[in-house]
Design a protein that fits this description.
This is Caspase family p20 domain-containing protein. The chain is of the alpha/beta class and 507 residues long. Strand 4 and strand 5 form a beta hairpin. It has two domains: 226 residues, Rossmann fold, CATH 3.40.50.1460; 213 residues, no CATH class. Strands 9-8-7-3-1-2-10 form a seven-stranded mixed beta sheet, with helices on both faces. The protein is globular.
Length: 507
């Protein structure tokens, strides 16, 4: 919007007596990037962003949401947000995903970024300094920047001359623009934050628990967030805040008008899990076997004990009783123009869960293949999607299509997985117990741990909220049982196999 148009609308609103309402608005930009194609993907940021956007909307912020955005989508979201933020009473910027520091400057990484050296940063990443400069130019009264982006730097080896090895760099507020500003990191500068094993990261989980409390001063709010994160990570992560807000300020008032969330459209892209290139032992033909429809997708591990089965029955019952508001979402957004098949998937929790499971299997398979084979799989995936859409809204047909595709992807992965070194779901540095060290040192155990992490998150997302905490507690209890194995590989393998069977039995 150019200056002439802006002044024209200001004059019209002033004459209509609406200018004060415009000036009193609250605006937010929320970005969550997880489906990275050239660096390690993250599971939780898209969930973090969706939940934060909904929460901010409920307390009166006009929210612009970008999930799994490339640089263009992030810039489009920033432009839309700046239009809302012009002279607002308060603005919030929330980012969850990979961030990198180079020579003291911070960059937010789009899912499309493929950075080979430092020169690529200015063209393939969003400079946090530039973002803050643009927000300052909008002159809001209060600026709140929340960065859940301190995961370990995925570009350290590429940017060895300038990259910080851990987390993001400290941001010191400039005296000319410090007034009314608060910047919050999910962990201390130079440290690494956790992505979390549930739906959200530990930091975002704590934020969501306190942000909507009416009248809670923002300093007290972040104090409670810090305490929650310290407890949930057992002292491993400490959020950090730098602020210059004058007087008291509460994000949530006693009475607010809920605001809708504007979602920036993002072109569908392939989500890639980065793995070392492998040599295929023989050419892989991307054709589904003729008897694939008769191949059931069932767990291949021994059943768990009776108590586990009883608890699983409880989870399944809750899953069946979900209301429409608790339906699990598929891997694609359910707004905008949908074909009949996509509409059926969005309206059916079982199909949505199958879609998430298939996408996870596709990502693992794609990442395990050498580059020359990835293009073939991508093209084959597009062909399959067209065949799936021939089902229209026939739920049985769609379900069979997904089951066949899962079997096909499993067959492809079986041909290359033996040659792929897969890290476990947790970092292998720092203090580890004997079981964790054994998992880090054994490729088969590491692969089992990754598979278990994926199965847990898929199962967690399929449950209503009141059963998610039950599953999380059950997972923690299982982990304690696993650790009794010490470094005994056969014991650890049995523990993982039984847990996988338990988590997968409801799918």
């Amino acid at each position: 919007m150019n200056c002439v148009i802006r002044l024209f609308f200001l004059a019209v609103l002033t004459l209509a007596g609406l200018a004060p309402a415009w000036a009193a608005q609250k605006a937010a930009l929320v970005i969550g990037n997880g489906a990275y194609r050239s660096v390690t993907p993250l599971v939780n940021p898209p969930n973090d962003a969706a939940d934060m956007a909904a929460s901010l909307g409920r307390i009166g912020y006009a929210v612009t949401l970008v999930r799994d955005g490339d640089l263009q989508a992030m810039n489009d979201g920033l432009r839309a947000f700046l239009r809302d933020a012009d002279h607002a009473d308060s603005v919030v910027i929330f980012y969850s995903g990979h961030g990198v520091q180079v020579k003291g400057r911070n960059y937010l990484i789009p899912v499309s970024a493929k950075i080979s050296d430092e020169l690529d940063l200015d063209t393939q990443a969003l400079s946090l300094d530039k973002l803050l400069e643009l927000v300052d130019s909008a002159a809001p009264k209060v600026k709140i920047v929340i960065l859940d982006s301190c995961r370990d730097n995925p570009l350290t080896r590429t940017l060895v001359r300038g990259a910080g090895t851990r987390g993001l760099a400290r941001i010191d507020l400039d005296a000319s623009s410090a007034k009314g500003t608060l910047i919050a990191f999910s962990t201390a500068p130079g440290s690494v934050a956790q992505d979390g094993s549930g739906r959200n990261s530990p930091f975002t989980t704590a934020l969501l628990a306190h942000m909507e409390t009416p009248g809670l001063d923002i300093r007290q709010m972040f104090g409670q967030v810090r305490a929650d994160v310290d407890q949930s990570t057992q002292g491993g992560q400490t959020p950090w805040v730098n602020e210059a807000i004058i007087g008291s300020f509460a994000m949530a008032g006693t009475v607010e008008n809920p605001q809708p969330v504007k979602t920036i459209a993002v072109e569908p892209q392939v989500q890639v899990q980065t793995q070392p290139p492998v040599e295929a032992q023989s050419p892989i033909a991307f054709q589904a076997p003729a008897d694939q429809a008769q191949t059931p997708i069932q767990p291949t591990f021994p059943p768990t004990d009776q108590s586990g089965l009883q608890q699983q029955a409880s989870l399944d019952q809750g899953n069946a009783e979900r209301s429409p508001e608790q339906q699990v979402s598929p891997s694609f957004p359910c707004n905008g123009q949908l074909n009949p098949t996509e509409g059926a998937i969005c309206n059916n929790a079982n199909l949505a869960t199958l879609d998430q499971t298939m996408v996870a299997a596709y990502n693992v398979t794609y990442g395990a293949l050498p580059k020359e084979m990835q293009a073939k799989l991508k093209a084959n995936q597009s062909e399959w999607r067209g065949q799936r859409d021939n089902c229209g809204s026939d739920v049985t047909c769609i379900g069979n299509s997904y089951q066949q595709r899962l079997g096909f992807l499993q067959n492809i992965l079986a041909q290359v997985s033996a040659a792929v070194r897969v890290p476990p779901s947790f970092p292998c540095n720092g203090r580890l117990n004997p079981s964790e060290r054994a998992i880090c040192q054994n490729a088969d155990l590491a692969r089992l741990d990754q598979a278990l992490s994926t199965a847990f998150k898929t199962r967690f997302r399929s449950l209503p909220t009141y059963l998610q905490s039950q599953l999380t507690d059950n997972q923690a209890a299982w982990r304690a049982t696993r650790d009794r194995c010490g470094a005994q590989v056969s014991c650890l393998q049995a523990a993982y196999m039984q847990r996988l069977a338990y988590l997968q039995s409801g799918q």
